[in-house]
Amino acid sequence: MKRPIIAGNWKMNNTNAGTKALLTELAPLVKDAKCEVVVCVPFTDIDTARKAIRGTKIKLGAQNVHWAPKGAFTGEISAEMLKELKVEYVIIGHSERRQYFGETDASVNARLKAAVGAGLKAIVCVGETLEEREAGKTNEVVTRQINGAFEGLEKIALKSIVVAYEPVWAIGTGKTATAEDANDTIAVIRKAIRKLYGRTAAGAMRIQYGGSMNPKNASELMAMPEIDGGLIGGASLKAEDFAKVVNY
Ligand code: PEP
To answer: Which of 105, 213, 229, 242 has the least C-beta neighbours within 10 A?
Structure first.
């Protein structure tokens, strides 16, 4: 049995004081969680978060990582820097990075290789825009993104990777894919992984749904056979809401 994984993506929210307060409130609410619980915090909150989650069920994640080990990349953070701060997970290729910061399938691939090479676990995001969905290109887009992200990656690396299917039109909009649609597209993603690495590896891969997941829709989404977890934006910023999703 795969252990479901629910991760919060805080995006550019919470100062250090807010981080401490939110995690202190969250920890007791998720102490009996059956799934793996992760919070992906801004770089500047990592050290505070690490201290606040000590001895709890909550694991530490970041929201991006650079592909180079070091060098002239102003404003970027390396995998080794994250490892030093005891970060376990890192989100790669979030649609906001693709949309606002020029992230491509190739840069996602390079960041993913750097992350797993350094011993981090990665949450790789894929998903179609509204335009792509309306043009009937969802399956083609997620398959291309998976092929691009995993290009040249050894099968062994899959143990350190979680995929998040996040339809871009559902992120932060309050619109959720229906549980059936999310399930169907995740099946397409799994098929793409199967073509690259075989049935067993694809079956073992945890694939999350993300996009306006909240306490009201979490249990329906999590009941779908292909959905192995959630990547949660807005609802991860309130301890009570995030805990309800975690305890779906
Ligand atoms: C996200 O940013 O990954 C996300 C799913 O956001 P939201 O839950 O707010 O739609």
So the answer is: 105
